[in-house]
Amino acid sequence: MVGAPTARSWPAVLGLTALALIWGTQYLIIRVGQESLPPLLTVALRYAILGVIAQVLVVVCRARPPRGTWPARLAFGALQALGMGLLYWAEGHVVSSVAAIVIMTEPLLVAVLAPLWIPGERPSARVVVALVCGFVGVALLIAHRPPESDAGALVTVATLAVGLSAVVGALARVLCKDVVSKVPPVVILRDSGWIVTALAIAGSLAFERGRPMVFGTGAILAFAYLGVVASAAASGIYLVLLQRYRVTSLSYLQFVTALVAVATGVLLGREHLGAAGVAGVAVVVAGLAVLVARPALGQHARDT
Q1: Which of 81, 105, 149, 164 has the maximal Cβ count within 10 Å?
Q2: Across-strand partners of 299?
Q3: Torsions phi, psi of 37, nearest 5?
């Protein structure tokens, strides 16, 4: 996408819009799922649905991974399992404002790590400015939320877990950029689905025994949405875009996702945005304007 959207760039614009809406609204759905089930089990159920759907697509498309790529595919799945497990567990012990601001450091970590791993991924000054704007904007968006009282060593550990989740997530995104250039997206989705499911189930059996589990209608609908829409459909769109565009530029999507999450809270959760929230929205939009100006997402094939 360069400058104003063209006939070739409109699919990417629509894809990014869909990702922002799906991943931005999923937090409400995640909350519903975790109200009756422990966190690691919710991760396992979500990714089990992804694994089943992706496995069917692999068979239908007759997709096969090139030889010698299994270590990278296994590493990507393991990183996803670790990052999701840490985040889901931490959100049960740390206030949402702390978790959100820490996890939004991931795009900045991607900008630092990607040039060390992938040729042609050195972010331009324009991308750096957009990432900084996004981080500042999200910080302001989080600042409008009323503080929640909590204390104790467990909160500190949970905060560190969120930070580690951001680091792991950044590593996973950079690794995925390399893997998706060699392996069909449906194969990546299948592998990550089964690997995350297996590791999350193992973690649930080890750490969540005796926890109450209630499979209500709300929880089932939540897992169906998260597995089919937020994981299978959205992740598939992201992998297709990742084949074409820089991971550092696409990482800005997380800031827009945060903006959508706040808008969802205001419209559906009746949260008050406040002056800091309005300023945060303005800064995120400004960063997005910087990113989509000419040149925008940095089409990988054109920049390398």
Answers
A1: 81
A2: 245
A3: -135, 150
What is the distance between the alpha carbons of residues 73 and 51, in angstroms, rounded to a whole number? 14
* Locus of tokens 């299994």: 70
| Residue 196 contacts residue 139 (beta carbons within 8 Å) | no
Could you tell me which of 80, 79, 83, 66 has the C-alpha nearest to residue 187?
A: 66
Q: Which residues of the chain have pLDDT under 70?
A: 1-9, 94-102, 104-105, 123, 138, 141-152, 262, 265-266, 269-274, 276-278, 280-281, 284-285, 287-289, 291-304
Residue recorded with tokens 């503080």: 147
Say if residues 85 and 38 touch (Cβ distance below 8 Å).
no
Eight-state DSSP code of residue 258: H
15 contacts 241 by C-beta, under 8 angstroms = yes
pLDDT at res. 274: 67
CA angle 277, 278, 281 (to 5 degrees): 85
Locus of tokens 């040729």: 119
pLDDT in tens, 230-259: 999 999 999 999 988 888 778 778 777 777
Distance CA 292, CA 246 (A): 13
How many CA within 13 A on the CB side of residue 122? 4
Give dist(CA 252, CA 288) in Å, integer. 8
The Cα 112–Cα 170 span in angstroms is: 9
Between the alpha carbon of residue 208 and those of residues 89, 177, 201, the distances in Å are 11, 33, 10
Q: Sign of dihedral through CA atoms 229, 38, 263, 108?
A: negative
The dihedrals phi and psi of 142, each to the nearest 5 degrees, come to -70, -35
Structure tokens at 182: 């060699």
Q: Which residues are within 8 A (CB) of 165 and not within 5 positions of it... i.e. 6 or more apart?
A: 82, 83, 84, 86, 87, 90, 103
